[in-house]
Amino acid sequence: MDQPAHDIFSHAVARLDKAFLHADIDQEAVQRLKHPKQVLEVTIPVRMDDGSLRIFTGYRVRHDATRGPTKGGIRFHPNVDLAEVKALAFWMTFKCAVANLPFGGGKGGVIVDPKELSRLELERLSRGYIERIADFIGPEVDVPAPDVYTNAMIMGWMMDEYSKIRRQHTPAVITGKPIPLGGSLGRDDATGRGAYHCIKELEAKRGWKPEEQRVAVQGFGNAGQAVARLLHADGYNVVAVSDSRGGIYKESGFDIPSLAHVKNESRHLKAVYCEGSLCESIAADVITNAQLLELEVDILIPAALENQITGENAPRVKADVIVEAANGPLTGEADDILNDKGTLVVPDILANAGGVTVSYFEWTQNRAGYYWPLELVQQRLHETMAREFNTVYNLANHKEIDMRTAAYVVGLNRIGEAIASQGTARYFTAQED
Predict the structure, then answer these.
(1) Does residue 309 share a domain with residue 201?
(2) Could you tell me which residues are beta bridge partners of residue 39?
(3) Looking at the annotation, which residues are catalytic?
């Protein structure tokens, strides 16, 4: 049976043993990777606008630092818990290894519904969180970034707070910042653009025509909008999108720029068509997020939260290809069912690695004090995603395994090589000549 959400870390780690069967590394690497390096829980007192005091709980997890400083986002969400943050940090370790970046995995979160806070309260919470974890992070230690319900402005507040504590300007401590504060061009749509490059590589391999491909996108936030916009521009038929409130479906497809314009202006997803600033409603079916996952489409892109496709609904998923723009949208049981059905799943640790890749570019630019033009950022992102997609895809075909297992094998081999470079039991128990 599917594991409960609170056991998401155990569920994530369970995939290691399957990948180890195909990896060329020492067992010690798997032992180490089943345990996070460091776990921090903090309480954050915040003075609210009405004068009252609220105490929020926050976490930061550094999973593995063998290949470099840990790297990973900070999410503000009412359902954040330690198991989830540990799982996200674990996934970040492998995401960085699959993208071949000199980072390990980290993640953070605060238990809060940010929609209930004023902007001033949100700033106080953001700065208070950094004040509590300042000794746990740093450009050479752990580098946070945006995640669910955090954004560039929040990263700017956090970078500023860290710089005040250290009494020196430290832009490289956090990525995903506003451009004037040391952010990188191209970071805003990097996660969705990375998923788009994966789809374009599949397009070349399978020889399909974009206009014949029907696409559904669950989650119309940053990543979902970006991948939908890029696919729409290439002629793909995006027939369904959704946000946390539900979705819309139109057989002939949507004009994605129109949907994005209204969503970003009003914070509501509406079926519209816009010419300039004038928008009018169009006919479309209202559907639930659950219904979107089961539509008759060619490509399904989960770009929302974890555990969306489970053992219960996986048999009803009809898409030929699933591209995980979100972290952990499929459970282990869903994976097994979809693999048996022949569904190709491009896993999260590959499909959404565009975000951390451009975060790496931002960190590099901050440290060098030299900033790249947008064209260079996007070119290097394309090169990275295409190269690593083909590494995983070719390994999956060579070993006749699914792409998720292949991605973990690639990550395990790279992390395992780094661990072995420091010596394992095999080295220390070997007889000297």
Answers:
(1) yes
(2) 61
(3) 107
